[in-house]
Design a protein that fits this description.
The protein is α/β, with parallel strands linked by helices. The protein has a single domain, classed as Nucleoside phosphorylase domain (Rossmann fold, 3-Layer(aba) Sandwich), CATH 3.40.50. Helix content is about 25%, strand content about 25%. The chain contains 6 helices and 8 strands, in the order βββααββαβαβαβα. The strands form 2 sheets. The chain has a 5-stranded mixed beta barrel with strand order 4-7-6-5-8, surrounded by 4 helices. Strands 1-2-3 form a 3-stranded antiparallel β-sheet, with no helix packed on it. β6, α4 and β7 form a beta-alpha-beta unit. It is globular, with a radius of gyration of 17 Å. The structure holds 8-iodo-guanine. The site of 8-iodo-guanine (8IG) has 15 residues, from β4, β7 and β8.
């Protein structure tokens, strides 16, 4: 699932054998302005088959957590056993810099939501999923073997769409959040529930509000993401090729 700044990575994953608008698959929301025309690609990479979601649904767009998780559940039902989540995020840990990719080692879900409310469908997964190793240690080790400079950090997920106030940034840091963003945690929960192995990679596009010199601006975020696209594309394609 390719978030902001990561979409060009799909071009390096292999041969595209099909590309379908998500809305045509059913269960996905009508294209919003932001997510206009997002597609899913079926990619062949040697013996592997990759489903690349060229964009995602966010909670802040007003969608139910089950809609946010729908792509993950669709992929797992289609046979995917590994879920790779990418995102852009704010960095809190001292020393982090814009343009740096970071492996997510764990998360704190402060969105106030989960895609697991309601009766549990035992065919999909357990009522009380274990989250001890939600972000696969095996896949993180594999990614670090490819790029030894990769750091790991705890991702704290908020609903957004506002960036944090300075007081909220202090709260996030006090709670142990080292990356902060508006995606990923609900998808990771749905993937773990469904029995998939999860790898998540954040692209630090900005230092969290108040930690950098400037006010946060979405265009700056996109500019950093665009500059990092090449490295991110290579990284994710290499990882996916070796899973
Ligand atoms: I890119 O600083 C990106 N997404 N919540 N805070 C939150 N989400 C983000 C940020 C950030 N940067």
């Amino acid at each position: 699932m390719l978030g902001s700044g990561w979409r060009t990575a799909a071009a390096r994953m292999g041969e595209v054998v099909a590309e379908v608008p998500m809305v045509e698959l059913g269960g996905f929301p009508e294209a919003s302005v932001a997510g206009h025309g997002d597609t899913v690609r079926s990619i062949r990479n040697g013996d592997r088959r990759i489903l690349a979601f060229m964009g995602r649904v966010h909670l802040y767009e007003g969608h139910h957590p089950n809609v946010v998780a729908h792509g993950i559940r669709t992929a797992v039902r289609a046979g995917c056993r590994t879920v790779v989540l990418t995102n852009a995020a704010g960095g809190l840990r001292p020393g982090m810099t814009a343009g740096q990719p970071v492996l997510v080692s764990d998360h704190i879900n402060l969105t106030g939501h989960t895609p697991l409310l309601g009766p549990n469908d035992d065919r999909l997964g357990p009522r009380f999923p274990d989250m001890t190793t939600a972000y696969s240690p095996r896949l993180r080790a594999l990614a670090r073997a490819i790029d030894p400079d990769l750091e790991e950090a705890v991702y704290l997920g908020l609903a957004g769409p506002t960036y944090e106030t300075p007081a909220e940034v202090r709260m996030v840091a006090a709670m142990g959040g080292e990356l902060v963003g508006m995606s990923t945690v609900l998808e990771a929960i749905a993937a773990v529930h469904a029995g998939a192995e999860v790898l998540a990679v954040s692209l630090v596009t900005n230092l969290a509000a108040g930690l950098g010199d400037d006010a946060l601006d979405h265009d700056d975020v996109l500019a950093v993401a665009a500059r990092s696209a090449e490295r991110m594309g290579g990284l994710i394609a290499d990882v996916v090729g070796r899973i």
